[in-house]
Amino acid sequence: MFIALDVFFVIWILKFKKKFSILFQGKDAKDLEKVLMNQLQRTMKLEGKVSDLSLMVEKLQAISEKTFQKMGALRFNPFNDIGGNQSFAVALLDNENNGFIISSLFIKEGNRVYAKAVKNGQSDFPLSKEEKEALDKAINSNGVKN
After folding, report:
1. Is 82 found in the same domain as 37?
2. Which end of the chain has fewer CB within 10 Å, C or N?
3. Mean pLDDT throughout 31-37?
């Protein structure tokens, strides 16, 4: 039984020595206090970097909430007798479905452009069928939240 314990302790010490040799690589390998202080300083630097990155992520997340994340576009022909689908409606919305719709109507005499504000997926201005369709596409697009 004592032989088994002796063998166990020898194996355990060899494994322990191997782990310590990995830890103590470098020029200050013989001084445990220096090694541990070096490791502590590196850990503190990394914690500072992680904290900085966390703050940066929070700022970017706040900014991204206000950027356009959803888009719906539609080309159409408002008059059957003139040209092709040269008119369009584009809805650009943020994560909370706030933004605007831009419409361009192409007619013989020129081009008309309209912009209508959108708040919470609704506009205070009457929307054409095409503008409503562009808005619905934007609201149901792959934004973070519908």
Report:
1. no
2. N
3. 77
